[in-house]
Amino acid sequence: MNSTETTPERPQEAAHPPRAAILMVDDHPANLLALEAILEPLGQELVKATSGEDALKQLLQRDFAVILMDVQMPGLDGFQTAALIKQRERTRTIPIIFLTALSRDAAHVFKGYAHGAVDYLLKPFDPEILRSKVSVFVDLFLKEQQLQRQATLLRQRDREMLERQGALRYRRLTESLPEIMWAARADGSLTYANRAWRDYTGHQEGYELSLATFLQDVHPADRERMSGVWGEALERVQGSANEFRLRRKDGVYRWHLARAVPEHDEHGALVGWLAIATDIDDKRRAEETLGRFKTTLDATLDCVLMFSPDTLTLAYANAGAAKQLNAGVDELVGLSVLEVESAFDETGFRKLLAPLMSGTLPSQTYSTNHRRRDGSEVPVEVVLQYVAEGEGPGRFISVARDITERQRAETALRLASEAKDAFLAAASHELRTPLAAAKGHAHLALLKLGGQTEAGPGKSLQIINRQIDRMAKLVEDLLDISRLQAGRLSLELEPFDLSQLVLETRDRMAVLSQTHELKVEVPEHLEGTWDRGRLDQVLTNLLSNAIRYSPEGGVVLVRVVAEGDSGVHLSVKDQGVGIPSEKQRLIFERFGRAHGSKYGGLGLGLTISQGIVEQHGGRIWAESVGTIGQGSTFNVWLPRRTETQSATPTDVSRTPS
C-alpha cells in the first residue's frame, strides 16, 4: 500500500526562517531513505511519496521548491507524473529531477528533458552533487529574484518543448475536427487528410493522396471546375470558397462548401495550404425547397404577406401582393401591415391576432379592404394564419384574394334575385283574383249538379276544384315567402290549446292516406299564446311531409311535451326514407329538396315553417340517420308565450342553427 510520510520538524529548528519543501518520489522506501539522508543536511522539509499518485496529492496541498522523481514506477511512471504536473498552472514551474538506474541511452535522457525535467541523474550519483543541485533550487524558491529567473528559464524550456511537440499537437487537433480537412504544400500537392475525410470517403490511412485521387471523389460534373479553381488559387496565392459535390463511401454525392486558405510563416513566405469542407447538402436542399416555394408563391395571383407578430412589419411579399397593392416587393417589405389593412387600428388588429397566437383558432377568415400605395382600396377576402418557428416568435401569413369581381357578381345576382322575388310576389298576388273567381264558379257548378260528381261533368268539376285548391296553396306559399323576405309576415297572437290543435290536424290529415297510422301523444291541455293559423300551417306541413316521404306507410308519431312554463317541444317522427346527413341543411332553403322531385313538392314548406317558428321566437331542426325505414324526426321548440314583435326582413335561404 502506498503511503506518504513527512519528516517531523526538530524543535531546535523552530526559530529558523521558513523552510522550503522538497518532494521525493520513489516506489522503493530504501531509495527514499537514502535521499532523505543525502538531503537532510540542507535543513529543509522533506516530503516522501511512494507513487506518482501520492505525489500529485501532495502537490494539491502545498508548493515545493523541487521534485526528485524516480523514472521507473508502477502505475504512473515518472514521465507520466511529470506530464500531469506540468499540465497544472500552479505546479508547472516546479523543477523536477529525474533519478534512474536503468535508462542510460541518450534518447531516454532526452525524453526526460522533454517531459519537463530540469536534470536527469543516473544512479549511482554523487550525493554531494545531488545535494548541491537541490540546494540551488531551494535557494531559488526562497529568493524571489532567483525564482523569477528560474520561472523565465522554465518558460523558455516549455516553449522549446512546445515547439518540439508542435507537429504532434497539430495532428491531434486536425484528427479531432468533425469537418473534412486537407493540407497541401506550397506547390499545391496534397500531403494530409484528416480522420473525418477517411470516415466520409471510406479510404484507409495510408491511401495515396494527390490532386488526382482527390478529384476521383468529386462529382464528374464538378471535377474540371474544381481543378481550375484550385489552380487559380495557387497562381494568385489567395483563399477561395466553392461549392461542389463529394462522394460518400456509400456512393452518394453530397454538397460541400470548401474553403482554402494559404499558410505563411513569420516572414510572410508561403509554406502551405489548408482546406476545410463543410457538408451543406441539407442546407442546400432546404434552400432549393424554399426557392421552389417562393417561386410557387410568386406565381400565385393572390396577395401573400408575412409579418412579425411583435412589430407587425412585413418580412415577405409575393409578386401577387405587388400587383394587387400597386407597389414593388421592395417597397412593401419593411412596411407595417397596418398600412395595408386599412380597416384596423393596432389595438383592433392585435385582438384579431390574439386567438391565433394562443392556438384558440387555427385561422381567421374575414373580408376587408386593402389600401394600395396610391391610396385607393381593393376589396379582399383574407385568410390569416400563425406559423410557429420552434422557440422563436413565429410569423403570420396572410393570403388575400381580390373579390372585386365576386362582389360585382354577387350584387348582380342579388339584384336579379330581388327582381325575381318581386315578380313572383306580384304574379302570386295577381293570380289570387282569377283563382278565387275560378274557385267560385267551380263551386257554383257543383251545386247546380246537385252533388253528382261520380261521373261526367261533375267528376271533371271535382278535379278542377282540387287543382284550383292546389294552385291556390302554391300561390299562398309564394306570397308567404315574399312576406318573409320583406319582413311583413305578421302574427295574430291569441291564447289557445295546442293539444287540441294537434288533434284537429291529425283528424284532418288522416283522410289523406289509409296506409299511415297517425299517432298522437299530447298533454290533456297545453295552453299558450301563439298564432293558431300559422302553427296549423307548420303542423300541416310537417305531417304532409311525413306522409309523402313514407311511401311504404307506417306510423307517424306526433308528440308534444311541455317544458315547464318556459316552452313547448313538438316533434313529428316518421318511418320513411330519411334524410342524408349532407342534405339536412339544404331542406330549409328555398326550393331545397333532399330527394329531388321524386316525391313531389316545391321545397317551400319547410322554409315557410322555419320563418313562422322563428317569428314566434322558436327554432326548428331535423334529425335523421339517412337510412330507409328509420325515417326522420322534425323538432319544433316554441316559447310558451310569444311576445308581440315587429316583423323583420328574413334571409329565407339560411339554415337553422
UniProtKB/TrEMBL annotation:
All copies of domain PAS, residue ranges: 166-237
Enzyme class (EC, first level): transferase
PAC domain mapped to chain residues: 240-292, 364-415
Domain annotation Response regulatory: ranges: 21-138
Catalyzed chemical reaction(s): ATP + protein L-histidine = ADP + protein N-phospho-L-histidine
A GO cellular component entry from the record: plasma membrane
Gene Ontology MF annotations: histidine phosphotransfer kinase activity; phosphorelay sensor kinase activity
EC number in record: 2.7.13.3
Lineage top rank: taxon: Bacteria
Modified residues (4-aspartylphosphate): 70
Keywords in alphabetical order: Kinase, Membrane, Phosphoprotein, Transferase, Two-component regulatory system
Name used for this protein in its record: histidine kinase
